Amino acid sequence: MKRETALVKNTIVLFIGTFFLKGVQYLLLPLYTTILTASEYGEVELVNTFVNLLVPIVGLQLDQGVFRFLIDNRGNKEKTKKLVSASVFFVLGSSAIFAIGMGVLNIFINYDYMGLLILNMFFGGISSLLMQISRGLGDNGGYSVSNIINAIVTAVANIFLLLGIGLRAEGLLYGAVVGYIAGIIFLFFKMGLQRLISIKFVDFGLIKKLLKYSLPMVPNSLSWWIFTSSDRIVVANFISVAATGILSVAYKFSTISLLIFNVFNMSLTESISLSVEDKDLSLYYNKIFDIVLNIFVSIGGVLIACMPFLFKLMVGHEFNEAYPLIPIAIAATTFQICAGILGVIYIAKGNTLSIAVSSIMAAVINIIADIALIGFMGSFAAVVSTLLSFFMLAFYRFLNVKKRYIGIKISARLILNLLISFGIVLSIYYIDNIYANIVNILVAVMGMLLFNLRNMDFVLNILKKRKV
């Protein structure tokens, strides 16, 4: 029960910080979509899209490598200093080189938001690295508090810059930079990095080992970027920047369940990595896989059922075209979660190459389907292609992991019940009748309770034993 206890405890700690960060963003969505036009919001999302593309390229995913290596060297102060110093100096150097290169490039392309793109890329990359170092050192509390500080500072800055100064789209981008810096300052002193970072601790041999682990994750990260962000680029080019803003709003709601999963996944990755040699790993993983499948399919159903009311409450009228896209995007996210839980095994086994290969395969499917369908499906092509590619990724990883590592067992009856329940909720959504919507919420919530009673007992028993 020790692993399960640590998993639940870490998930709760990480969830608090991550939920606070994302929760503030969702609470401010009505303000953004009311004040900004769809085109302005689309510009902000395009910059964020490019930041998400550049950060893993610039840092070569070294943040993921140092997290994994720090787990294996907890308690070894000398190795910890070498790992932290090597990763910090490498990411700082590569970020500075990219920033200069992008500044020179802008002389020729003259992109209006290049300065803000560089700032968000630079500080976003440093923030990501320090948060993974915090997790690697076992300080999940510091990780969560940095997220809370980031959220509060970003929200205050955004409101001031948007309403007080009237910077509009630029205000949101400057606010993000200020939030990153606040989180970085907190983590620097919280972890005492002044004692861990020194040029004399930099070991180039260790950097090579880190890169050997992290480099295969770069194409994987780029593949995920294609899944989650390339749709915006395609839509902006084939339809309009305003359509990108509308698509981004649809994805904001679909990623609610992904937000919850990503927190859990961080804890699970650590737990599986620490337990990878245990004889009962297969039994432990199957239990967790069954819980995840039940919970997140249920969450997806509840989200769809609640959306007719949430959408009107949180989104401005100019973004109404996002409404029919949301259920498909939520279904795609559910398959993304399935693929993610399977990817944990690859990480625990150190097989980052398989993560990259499977992700690239699905990313190619995504972008081909997107371009092929957009001519006659419009914005629907983006969410349909994402759904198709995540389904293929989850299916491939399930077969591959089952063949190479763990005998995953899934009840056919469970899958059928989940699909029927999800299908009913999805069908009622498009009727768009207030009474039908109320019934839909009741059906979704009842289904969630029925499918997860055993899972809730499992978690509550752990919490009682630990008195968390």
> Mean pLDDT score, rounded?
80
| Structural class estimated from helices and strands | mainly alpha
Structural domain count: 2
Strand content: under 5%
Describe the 3D structure.
By secondary structure, the protein is mainly alpha-helical. It folds into two domains: about 1-215, no CATH class; about 215-468, no CATH class. The protein is about 85% helix and about 0% strand. The chain has 18 helices and no strands. The longest helix is centred in the middle third of the chain and has 34 residues, at about 240-275. It starts with a helix and ends with a helix. The relative contact order is 0.11.
Summarize the structure.
The protein is an all-alpha fold and 468 residues long. The protein is built from 18 helices and no strands.
Layout of strands and helices, then pairs:
Blueprint: H1 2-27, H2 29-35, H3 38-59, H4 62-72, H5 77-109, H6 114-136, H7 140-165, H8 169-190, H9 193-196, H10 204-214, H11 217-238, H12 241-274, H13 281-314, H14 326-348, H15 352-377, H16 380-404, H17 412-429, H18 434-466
